Amino acid sequence: MHPEKAIVFELAQSKQEFKKAAEKLGLTWVDEADFSYASDDDFFDKKKLGKAMEGRLYLTVPNQRAISELLKLWTIYSSGKELPRGYGDWKKLFSHLLDIRAWGAQDRLTPEAARYIAGLGDAGDDKANFELELVFHGNKNRDAVAVKSLLGKINIESAEVLDTSYIPEIRYHALLVSISKAEARKLLDLESGLLNFDEVAYLRPQAMSISSSDPEDVEQLVESSDGVLLHPPVAALFDGVLVQNHDLLKGRLVIDDGEDLERTSPVNTRHHGTAMASLILHGDIAKDEGALQRKLYVQYLLAANQDSSVETTPQSRLLLDVIYSAVLRLKQAPKELGGDVFVINLSLGDINRPFSGQMSAWGRLIDYLAWKYNLLFIISAGNIAEGLSLATIKQPIQLTKLTDDERHLLFVTAVQAKMAHRSIFSPAEAINALTVGASHSDGCLTAPSPYLIEPYSSEKFPSLISGLGLGYKQAVKPEVLNCGGRALYSYIATADGLLLVPGKAGRYFGQQVAGVSSTTDLVRTIGTSNSAALATRAAVIIHDELMSQFSAAEFERIRPFLPSIVKGLIVHSASWGSAGAFLEGALEPKDGRLWKNRRSNITRFLGYGKIDLSRVLECTEHRVTMLGVGALQSEGAGLFSFPLPKSLSGKKDVRKLVVTLSWLSPTKPAEQFYKDALLDFVTEDTNGSPIGVSRVPANQPPFDTSRRGTVIHEIYEGEDAVPIGEDDVLRIRVECRTQGAGALPAIPYALIVTFEVADTLKANVYSEIRDRIRLPLRSKIQS
């Protein structure tokens, strides 16, 4: 997006209606990336169940002359005059619009900035921080001149510059400025000079993560394991200052405090980092899953101070620069202190930036760092703190009279009605990251309090606090759900129905983690941060399982593919299950002809489904999982052959094939097609599946939706009797192409295939397939 070349269309009708009219004029947009949009809460299509319509569309045009000519035509049309000869068809296009104008102050003020300013109170600090994201020219000298000019103008506006950042790889150039609350309120009236500087593309509230946890019902640790020889870390936690000497964490951490946050952080406020480290190293203590045999690398990004118990990222720094510096420090660490780390847990999100369609700068940074340094970022979807209204329920006793299905339907319907306001938080939209939502599950066995409402009785359902997808370009986000603690709700009876408010985790619900008041404290917590931390724990477990299955030489050969392998295996373990079947009948649209829209909505809730790690860590007589790796360049392909069990020949029994393809992609922030590497897989068998299965649309995301990110997960089922010969194989072809111009570098990927038959079948498919695998591990570049 180049604001200096942008023209703004204020829509009077839906985006699709405008596009149809534009295409009739030959103005064809080949991809949604040509449109940038800002959602307007007042411009709302009630027929689309919570989907905010785009009130503005931004289109980049070649030059200022083109802008002037278009504005001239609009002026003629809007004054009621006839358009010049040859421009008659533009009249139909203009009929869809309220206004056409050049990029201006109202475009620089982002919707999230307007919401933030409207919520500023009079209490507390009299200052407010904002990020000025500058027009990025791509020429260092020109960018430097622009900043110098801007700094002079900012001084006139009584704004203090706190920090600057210049990351050309993601076309990011920004200033962090502090202004008075009185000056901030002028922004809403578009009166502040900050909105009229040509160098400024956007004004946003400071990107910031916060945690204000204050757990209740402290319990005590009975015993902990000490004296275990721990291996070097392979996972990093970028999070809050923690209690290093807690019995569950002591001796298990490698700490990097590059921002010098620990020195001023009160011990009794170090909740978030302590909880995340506890979950990664030990899981939910109530489940007694055992400790990892590896250390955890930790960088501090979040801390409270003597003046506030709220943990925040540094308020005088641009958060992107903090993250960028943290990754660079990690990559400089020696092996024993973090040099082997390939997974980074980021259980943080920008509280001021719920995802609204455009890729955030933070998301661009995550994608760049993942590709540049071959890293897997595991990111939390974000917690929805707002309450939920149940219009048809006046008193909580009404809920006790509902069946489980009736109660589930009530809550699902209420959430769907507010989907547009319950989205994931940036940077969860990053395409190379694995984004994790929370499922309604924990290890707490205590009966719920009668004063709290539990929405679901099934752990397969997403937690009400979990941010919903989809992601960038309507990709699957979050990709998976993981245990995030049961979220129970307190309530307020209002004239408009029952208003539910998230309750504090305590003895009745939540995941058990290390506390901060003493070295033996245990508390409970809930949220998508927990889900991401447990997914990071799963990543370490998968890594160590792979090490045990391969020789040292073989493991070194697959090491460059570890981010793709681990991301793929985590997703491979997921499925919609019973929650998907319920949502199929519960979510709109109910019209059978609109099944694709309905499945997309299910995907918003479930992604690819809830993780079940046992499915990829353990094979059985009836289930076998196979792994292939490779690297592809533009227009390249790799062919994989998987043996088939002859014992199934001619038998009519239920069978399932699950295929997952995972990779990291370079990105092009300045171009129309952001994701540079498109991978896909196809079966090589021209006469259909050789094992009698086909893709089942009803229990997974739509085919095209699953191909918009960097992990594809497909489930095939069937029970046809098919002949299988002695040497028959399932052939899967992995293909690679680029969306943009130029050649791709080699793209590492992982292909995971699971073949499973019904437990009732008298056959050991695992042994049959294992005995037929003779090929060496594939890890060559194929093109």
UniProtKB/TrEMBL annotation:
The organism's superkingdom is given as Bacteria
Which terms does the record give in the GO molecular function aspect? serine-type endopeptidase activity
Q: Which species does this protein come from? A: Pseudomonas syringae pv. antirrhini
Q: Which GO terms describe its biological process?
A: proteolysis
**Protein name in the entry:** Peptidase S8/S53 domain-containing protein
Q: Where is the Peptidase S8/S53 domain?
A: 242-609
Its lineage reads: Bacteria, Pseudomonadati, Pseudomonadota, Gammaproteobacteria, Pseudomonadales
Q: Which SUPFAM superfamilies match?
A: Subtilisin-like
Transmembrane feature ranges = none
